[in-house]
Amino acid sequence: MLLKRTFENLLYTIPVIIISNIIYIIYTSQFSGGLAGMAPFVMILNSMISFVICLIVYFVINLKYKLNQPKSILIFILISFLTLIIYFTANPFNYGSEKIYRDLDLWLYISILIPSFLIIIVKRMFSKDDY
């Protein structure tokens, strides 16, 4: 039962990961390869690291509490942001860097938020559960 709940929560993070990576790859495709060539790999690597950490966090939280899907997506957002800040030092408010790098960092965060909130809204619209 515990593993089933954990994997159900992970099922809602997989579309967030896929859609956010697609959004970020589409955004970075407008830049030349020298400026943003490796930027999509940061997003993909962040998604993989966050997914593994979320698996562990969901498992630990599900031992005591029953997580619903919107809360699990919000936990994924928090872990992704912390991974970007701590591991990748992606700061969109760093005014010492060039504008293109601030934009790339900002879109790392935006590309995670857009599919996350869309999935939460769709889940709430079509769900009979009360959150």
Order of helix and strand elements from N to C terminus: HHHHH
Contiguous low-pLDDT stretches (5 residues minimum) are none
Taken from the alpha-carbon principal axes, the silhouette is: elongated
Compute the CA-based radius of gyration.
16 Å
Beta-strand content bin: under 5%
Domains (count): 1
Q: Output the structural class.
A: mainly alpha
C-alpha end-to-end distance? 21 Å
Instruction: Give the % helix.
Output: over 70%
What is the arithmetic mean of pLDDT? 86
The tally of helices reads: 5
Number of strands: 0
Major sheet characteristics: none
Can you describe this structure?
It is built from 5 helices and no strands. The mean pLDDT is 86. Helices cover 79% and strands 0% of the residues. The radius of gyration is 16 Å and the shape is elongated. Helix 1 packs antiparallel against helix 3, helix 3 crosses helix 4 and helix 4 runs antiparallel to helix 5. It has one domain. The chain starts with a helix and ends in a 5-residue tail after the last helix. The chain has 131 residues and is mainly alpha-helical. The longest helix is centred in the C-terminal third of the chain and has 28 residues.
